[in-house]
Amino acid sequence: MQARERSGRHRPSAFAIVVAALVALVVIAAAVVAWSVWGTDWRARRNNAQALEDFRIACAANAQHPGGDTIAVISIPSLGLQAAVVKGVGAGSLGRGVGWYPTTSLPGQPGNFAVAGYRITHGSPFRNLAELRAGDAITVRDCTHTYHYRVITPASELTVRSHDSWVLDAVPGHPERVPDEAIMTITTSLDLVPSAERSVLFARLATS
Question: In order of start, what are the domains of the chain with their CATH numbers?
Fold first, then answer.
């Protein structure tokens, strides 16, 4: 009888079980968040480095037709950014660098060269995009040319809804117009948490 009583005293209560389950859930949630923020950043930066190296090799082999998914390299000196510009804006492309909207112009060409990238997670290439001001430099380099853009509309001054596709027009907001200059559009999340709003930056080609 006493042995049964002693063993009963050590049996965990329902409250202790609930607390242990909650602690386990918190630990799992923290691990998921940590991977989303830091783990995906680490993996995307590694993938970006590989994409940059593959692009360098492809350009050296055939500058006119390098092949592969990377079409250029974008550099923003004031943000310390250098990233591969990869075809497409799906998760696979954005996980390797900056994504290029394939329905828009190529770098340096008349029209709208439009790209997208994460503000947080997956390398966070545009984490500090809102710090850019009018006149700041953005450089885009393909296998044969280097294009120098200057910011004309900072991301801190323009917010749109995620479905506002006018920013991708050849002449943004004027789909009926024929472009006579080369501009660049960058889109990224407005907030550090998922939302339906996007920050948008416009830049104009200065020299090439």
Answer: 14-207 (2.40.260.10)
